[in-house]
């Protein structure tokens, strides 16, 4: 019996579709990245932030986190989780850290800058993260707010490392 294999293209398309269905755009995330990185890079453009978010969204680890987290949010909306998990996810209980743990796992590939940025975003709820966390509009976003913070933090870490690489290569040329 052959195992069905899911292609990278299918996973990428599913992750992007789910974000869009939940009202999150690449630009929303890029705005957070810009806010996080512009104090350290005066020449930073929104286009660079968008590109960095898009690169992060190509990583399988990030895509898997999106698929799992959003699926759990959707199941909670339909009241399809068993108790007490249903109530915990539905109310985004303060001591429930699985949402942050999944999101943090996706950040780890982008270094300590991404990890500390994730902590900052998780605590301060910037941009669309705040909208998702405060549940403006409808839906349960227990996992999604942390996933957005994870993507933004990863894209921020990626940009910070790229800036450093560019500075070093300019020094080598001089």
TrEMBL record:
<dbReference type="GO" id="GO:0008962">
    <property type="term" value="F:phosphatidylglycerophosphatase activity"/>
</dbReference>
<dbReference type="GO" id="GO:0006629">
    <property type="term" value="P:lipid metabolic process"/>
</dbReference>
<protein>
    <submittedName>
        <fullName>Phosphatidylglycerophosphatase A</fullName>
    </submittedName>
</protein>
<dbReference type="InterPro" id="IPR007686">
    <property type="entry name" value="YutG/PgpA"/>
</dbReference>
<dbReference type="InterPro" id="IPR036681">
    <property type="entry name" value="PgpA-like_sf"/>
</dbReference>
<feature type="domain" description="YutG/PgpA">
    <location>
        <begin position="28"/>
        <end position="160"/>
    </location>
</feature>
<dbReference type="Pfam" id="PF04608">
    <property type="entry name" value="PgpA"/>
</dbReference>
<dbReference type="InterPro" id="IPR026038">
    <property type="entry name" value="Put_PGPase"/>
</dbReference>
